[in-house]
Amino acid sequence: MSGTARHILIVDDEVDLLEALRDAFSDEGYVVTTAVNGRDALEKLPTMARPCVVILDLLMPVMTGNELVAEMRADPRYSDIPLIVSTSDPSRSPPGVPVMRKPVKLNAMFQAVGRLF
Amino acid sequence: MCGYHLDRFAADADADDLDASRSARTGGAQAEGSFRNGDADAGLRELSRLQERERALETELAARKGLEETLRQSLRDLEESRDALAQSEEDLRDFVENAAESLHWVGPDGSILWANKAELDLLGYARTEYVGHSIVEFHADRPSIEDILSRLARYETLRDYEARLKCKDGSIKFVLISSNVRSKDGKFIHTRCFTRDITERRALEHEREQLLASLQRSVRFSEMFLGILGHDLRNPLAAIVASASHIRRRSRDESLAGPTGRILSSAERMGRMINQLLDFTQIRLGAGIRLTRQAFDLRPLLDIVIGEIRTMHPGCDIVSRCTGDTACFADEDRVAQLISNLTGNAVHHGVPGSTVDVRIDGTNRLFLLLEFHNQGAVPPDMLPLLFEPFHENADKRTVASSGLGLGLYISKQIVLAHGGSIDVVTTAAGGTRVLVVLPRQWGARDEHGSFLAIPVEGAP
């Protein structure tokens, strides 16, 4: 692990999965922030260190993953943050975003995130 | 015709001549006295003339008798024709009055001029309750009868016009009306309407439609339910997989390796089944298999997939090889799923301990040939059902190990979505060979050897 903290934001309404991923990524040396829907993520983004990647689910209450992607792409502060979609229905994914189908293997997710650094 | 004998019409002059002739032949004494006192030749000429006249009159009489007979025959023929016409009219009246088909006439003002028994029976009215009334009163849908009357007023012919009629008991009859107009000298006389009762047929159709709609709702509900269930199951499963993977990576306790491995392999199998259920639901809901095409090489993908299957089935001998150019333009994830399904199928159904061969032939310019071979034959009665969803499998052991029976069905859908084909060849001696023809749909490599993605018609 490098000495520089690597921040990631994980957005999913499945709290168990959110916590499991936070534990796993924290153990890998990432600083993890979690959000339970797109609105929650948008509210946390200005308060946290700029994330290196946002891992997000698509089907969520309040604000969906697709809506979050649209908001981030429209905002110059966040439009260049890399995204990885982790979803059970890849057919709904926004274009141009890497997609991982749930249940995602942890190693595969580490590799996908690692490729972004 | 008058009743007098035709003799009564003979001319008076003719009668005189006839009498004179008869007298000349029968009254000898009187004639003899005349000859003695007059010119004998003149008498003879007179006699001859009278005889001639007699013959002419007899001929005339015979002709008139012939004419009389002809006229009498004509009279008899005429009477027979009149009787036949009356009989025909009677038959026709009986035919329309007692026909099984309902008939009625409507005048130009919309009032019913006549209706037969079948029509009255159909609707349950007495003649006086129906005939003389406006036809509009008996139609359940006013726009419908207004349309019928206006079209007939334009002398259109209606065929099987569907309408609803009100019966005396308050019920409604569904009918088909066929009608046109009888006219004379351009004047509307009356309509000729045939009414066919289709109430029973409509009731059956309605029942069938209801049943069909109910079945469709049930099927749709089941498919939606499966889809939602499959989708919602993935989230907790993802949490299980992530947590078990985390424990496995971090734990130094060797005794946890077995349990976490079992959690992960079970979760893997469950995930596969959920994926299959979701794919199946998506296909059945009409969305089909959606493809995200890209240019890639099948060779490394094959190595990755076969590696995963070897990990899951360490005792199984799987041989894979590629020949030719294995570049293609397709949905990489779906092709990986296809290879995984068909190889897994060969492993599950092959003779235990035998080798499974997976081969990709890239020697054809237009397509790739994927071949999956295992020992053991597919029973002939199973062949037609092989690519059907949830097909029965005689080998219960393999059913338990292979999951839902959707793998081959989904594999076929993936191949079809790519515009390819899939076939099975099976013999007791040669084993089972699944052959997939996958259109290459690829772009040429650029100068750096990278694939050039060429958009494929219909590709997302």
Q: What does this molecule look like?
A:
- The complex is a heterodimer of chains A (117) and B (460).
- With 117 residues, chain A is α/β, with parallel strands linked by helices.
- Chain A is 33% helix and 21% strand.
- Chain A contains 4 helices and 5 strands; from the N terminus they run βαβαβαββα.
- Chain A has helices at 15-27, 38-44, 65-74, 106-114, and strands spanning 6-11, 30-35, 53-56, 83-87, 99-101.
- A 5-stranded parallel beta sheet of chain A has the order 2-1-3-4-5.
- In chain A, α3 links the parallel β3 and β4.
- In chain A, α2 runs parallel beside α3.
- The longest helix of chain A has 13 residues, at 15-27.
- The model of chain A has no long low-confidence stretch (mean pLDDT 90).
- With 460 residues, chain B is an alpha+beta fold.
- Chain B is built from 12 helices and 12 strands.
- Chain B has helices spanning 12-26, 28-37, 40-98, 117-123, 127-130, 142-153, 199-250, 257-284, 298-312, 332-349, 396-402, 407-417, and strands at residues 102-106, 112-115, 158-166, 172-184, 187-197, 294-297, 317-324, 327-330, 355-362, 367-374, 421-427, 431-439.
- In chain B, the strands form 3 sheets. A 5-stranded antiparallel beta sheet of chain B has the order 2-1-5-4-3. In chain B, strands 7-9-10-12-11 form a 5-stranded mixed beta sheet, with helices on one face. A two-stranded antiparallel sheet of chain B has the order 6-8.
- In chain B, β1 (102-106) and β2 form a beta hairpin.
- Chain B is elongated, with a radius of gyration of 52 Å.
- At the A-B interface, α1 of A face α7 and α8 of B.
The low-pLDDT segments of chain A are: none
The DSSP helix count of chain B reads 12
The sequence of SSEs of chain A as H and E is EHEHEHEEH
Which oligomeric form is depicted? heterodimer
- Kindly report the greatest chain-chain contact and the residue count on each side: A-B, 25 and 25 residues
The secondary-structure class of chain B comes to: alpha+beta
Terminal residue distance of chain A? 12 Å
Over the alpha carbons, how many angstroms does the gyration radius of chain B reach? 52 Å
Identify the strand order in the major beta sheet of chain A. 2-1-3-4-5
Mean pLDDT of chain B: 84
| N to C succession of SSEs of chain B | HHHEEHHHEEEHHEHEEHEEHHEE
